[in-house]
TrEMBL record:
The lineage of its organism: Eukaryota, Metazoa, Ecdysozoa, Nematoda, Chromadorea. This is Uncharacterized protein. InterPro entries: Alkaline_phosphatase_core_sf (IPR017850), DUF229 (IPR004245). It comes from Ancylostoma ceylanicum. GO terms for cellular component: extracellular space.
C-alpha cells in the first residue's frame, strides 16, 4: 500500500497501490460503516495528490454471510461485486469518460479490470488516452479495457466472456425440489465430492470427516441453459455438513441420464469459518476443512 507520504512527496512519479481490506466486513457486512471515516479522510486529505490518478474501488464478490445474504437480493449480489472507477480530473467529460460510462452498462468481469490496468500502463499513454478503438490486451482474450469500445459484434454474456455457470448473474427461474429421494441423492453426491476434493489435496487426514446434515435443492427451470434437453437437469444444491465438521456450502449439480456431475468448479462457503481451518497451510483450503482437534495427553513422571 502506498502511504500518504509517498503520494505527496513523489507525486510526479508513477506508482501503483493495491489495498485489499478484508477483515473489515468479510464476515460481518454490518461492520462496513466502521471504515467510512478512514476512507473519507484518506481521499479528502490526498485529493490534490490524487487528481491525476485512476482509482478503482471493487470487491472480489458480494456478501456471503449474514441476514442480507439470505435474501433474494443478497443471493444475486454475491456474484455481482461492487465496482467504481474514478478517472483523472483532466479526462472527465471527455470521450474516454463517455466510453467508460457506456461500458458500465455492459456485463463486466475482473478480467476487464486487469486489461484496463494493462491499457493504462502500456498502451494509452502513447496517445494521451485518446485511443478508444478495441484492442486485444491479453492472449486469452478474456478481458477488454474499460477505456475502449468492446469488441464489435460480440454480445457480452456469461457464455462469451466466459463466466462459469455458478458465478453467472443471469436470473434463471428455480423451484424447490420436494422429491426426498432426489434430495438425498444430491446431498450424498455433493458431500462425497467435497470429501474427494480434500483427498485430492492430500489434507483429508487433517480434517474432520464430511457427512451430510441438511440439504436444500432448487431446480433450474429456464430453457435458456446451455445444452439442456429433456434428459438433463440443473440444480442449485445448498447443504450443511454434520458435526464435528462444520460448514454450509453451495454448488450447482448437473443430472444427465441419471448421472450426477458437478456443475461448478468450486464449492461456495456460505457461513463464517473463523479459525476452524487454521491447520491448512494453503489459504484456499481453509473454508473447506474443519481441522481435527489434537488431544495432548500429559503423564506424570514416575516417582
Amino acid at each position: 500500500m502506498v502511504c500518504t507520504y509517498e503520494i505527496r512527496v513523489f507525486s510526479d512519479s508513477p506508482k501503483f497501490s493495491l489495498s485489499w481490506i478484508v477483515e473489515l466486513a468479510h464476515e460481518y457486512v454490518k461492520l462496513l460503516y466502521k471504515g467510512d471515516y478512514a476512507l473519507y479522510n484518506f481521499f479528502f486529505e490526498n485529493r490534490d495528490a490524487l487528481f491525476n490518478s485512476f482509482v478503482f474501488i471493487f470487491g472480489d464478490h458480494g456478501g456471503r454471510y449474514g441476514d442480507e445474504a439470505e435474501t433474494s437480493f443478497g443471493d444475486s449480489e454475491q456474484n455481482n461485486p461492487f465496482l467504481y472507477v474514478i478517472v483523472p480530473e483532466r479526462f472527465r467529460n471527455t470521450k474516454l469518460d463517455e466510453q467508460l460510462r457506456q461500458n458500465s452498462k455492459e456485463l463486466v468481469t475482473h478480467f476487464d479490470i486487469y486489461a484496463t490496468l494493462k491499457d493504462i500502463l502500456y498502451h494509452q499513454p502513447a496517445s494521451n488516452f485518446t485511443e478508444l478503438d478495441f484492442k486485444p490486451l491479453d492472449e486469452s482474450m478474456r478481458g477488454s479495457s474499460l477505456l475502449r469500445r468492446f469488441q464489435d459484434g460480440m454480445r457480452r454474456t456469461c457464455k462469451t466472456l466466459p463466466i462459469p455457470f455458478q458465478f453467472c448473474i443471469c436470473q434463471y427461474e428455480k423451484t424447490e425440489v420436494t422429491d426426498e429421494s432426489l434430495k438425498d441423492s444430491l446431498g450424498q453426491f455433493v458431500v462425497a465430492q467435497l470429501s474427494s476434493f480434500l483427498e485430492r489435496q492430500n489434507v483429508s487426514k487433517q480434517c474432520e470427516e464430511i457427512k451430510l446434515k441438511e440439504i436444500e435443492a432448487k431446480q433450474y427451470l429456464s430453457s435458456k441453459l446451455a445444452h439442456v434437453d429433456n434428459s438433463t437437469s440443473f440444480f442449485e444444491v445448498t447443504f450443511e455438513v454434520a458435526a464435528p465438521a462444520k460448514g454450509r456450502f453451495q454448488i450447482p449439480v448437473r443430472k444427465e441420464l441419471e448421472q450426477l456431475d458437478l456443475g461448478g468448479a468450486l464449492f461456495t462457503r456460505l457461513d463464517t469459518y473463523g479459525k476452524s481451518g487454521d491447520c491448512m497451510s494453503n489459504e484456499d483450503l481453509r473454508p473447506f476443512c474443519t481441522c481435527k482437534k489434537i488431544e495432548i495427553h500429559s503423564t506424570s513422571p514416575s516417582p
